Amino acid sequence: MVRPSGPPAQLSESARPSKHREHPSKSPKRRREGKRLQRRGDGHEQLLSETERRRLPSQHEHSDLPGSASDTAENSPKRRAHFLHGPYPATHFGPKACILPNPTSVMHIQDPASQRLTWNKPPVNVLVIRKIRDESLVGPFKELCRFLVEEKQMMVYVERRVADDASLSMDETFGSIRNQLCTFREGYDDISDCVDLIICLGGDGTLLYASSLFQGSVPPVMAFHLGSLGFLTPFKFESYKTEVAKVFEGNAAITLRSRLKVKVVKDMLQRTGQESYGREPQQQEHNGLPHGHTSSEAGKVTLQLQVLNEVVVDRGPSSYLSNVDLYLDGRLITSVQGDGVIVSTPTGSTAYAAAAGASMIHPNVPAIMVTPICPHSLSFRPIVVPAGVELMITLSPDARNTAWVSFDGRKRQEIQHGDCIKITTSCYPVPSICCHDLVYDWFESLAQCLHWNVRKRQARLHAFKVKVLIELIL
């Protein structure tokens, strides 16, 4: 009797030898098919055995043996460790192919319809952000604060310059509410651990400002359209009581708007050279919290921010064209010569990038957009790269002048030779609450802000008016 080549533990139930399989009455053709199925079962069991050994650390009951295939794969320099949006580690393709598990992949793409808001505990602290220097928002601001304090018994946080507004201090009827407001100052007071919900009154700039206040985890944001633009503000203030009550109850659709983690490194290339820029400092850092440190190998990180819309590198006040080099995961992709380059999120695709000729991308698409600003080479078109890759922008060696960089239109600073800007996807998105759902809200904002089908709507309205007039005459 011929024994199988593999050990018995690796055989599946269908591949184990039995009296029925070894019956001499079988034809040679059927015996060959049985051996082929047996070999296929051996390979399948070996694949499952390898997958079991390569599970995540949290799935192991005991640690793997040193020198195993899992350790070799994890220590390989070709393995990436900062993909934020990737397939689930246990994904298989066909009978034998699978993706090599990555223990550091803590996020994966999920069904957008499953993105629903829930509360572990009832919300208590609400941050209200109002557009500054707009007197038309004083009335809605008073109504909302009175509703949250008196009817909902919430603790309301506002910026100090908003509470000190003359129009509020002179209103005696609002004095009792104003005395119960908690105030803070940007850059001085940390409210990241105090706020449960953010409510914005204004345009898209109010949501960008709310994002800048939270460099780590961001509370859910509810934005009311009371400004000039409405790409990010789906709610109407006329029904604010009903909408706020629904959010407090939970089970609302949310859009996870990805942000960019940006680091400005000074004197990096002067110390290490361009070919070794990718070595990260040995010091452990927190993803998202602004801080700086000095390393003899990687220069000095002078600024680290979370950006919701875009990072813009331009030529500044110089009359010369800017000339910057664009790296993607350590490899030089191209040199951008022109007025500058825009690195944006899908949320920022409807902002400066859209004006520069880029496509508009839904916020749930995991991607990073690179858009040139008036490039000298007309063949350089906007490109989209996967979320999680690391981009680096530096001045070209033959650049005649320096460049300037801004982050969501703020904190503008100069970039000189030897400096670099590192950009990747942040681990802290902005959960934006939807009015209806994440697909309808996005297309509705495009139709309203970009005036889609305006002529058709006007024609239908005109035809309706004519019809009504004819009926009245007859």
TrEMBL record:
Could you tell me which HAMAP family the record lists for this protein?
Answer: NAD_kinase
Q: Can you tell which superkingdom this protein's organism belongs to?
A: Eukaryota
Stored InterPro entries: ATP-NAD_kinase_N (IPR017438), ATP-NAD_kinase_PpnK-typ_C (IPR017437), NAD/diacylglycerol_kinase_sf (IPR016064), NADK (IPR002504)
Q: Which GO terms describe its biological process?
A: NAD+ metabolic process; NADP+ biosynthetic process
The regions listed as transmembrane in this protein's record are none
Q: What is the lineage of its organism?
A: Eukaryota, Metazoa, Chordata, Craniata, Vertebrata
Record has NAD as a keyword: yes
Looking up PANTHER family in the UniProt record yields: NAD KINASE (PTHR20275), NAD(+) KINASE (PTHR20275:SF29)
Q: Where is the composition biased (Basic residues)?
A: 17-34
Sequence similarity: Belongs to the NAD kinase family.
Where are the annotated segments for Disordered? 1-88, 273-295
Q: Name one GO molecular function term.
A: NAD+ kinase activity
**What is the designated name of this protein?**
NAD(+) kinase
Q: What class of enzyme is it?
A: transferase
SUPFAM superfamilies in UniProt: NAD kinase/diacylglycerol kinase-like
Enumerate the UniProt keywords alphabetically. Answer: Kinase, NAD, NADP, Transferase
EC no. given is 2.7.1.23
List all Basic and acidic residues biased stretches.
35-64
Q: Which species does the entry assign this protein to?
A: Mastacembelus armatus
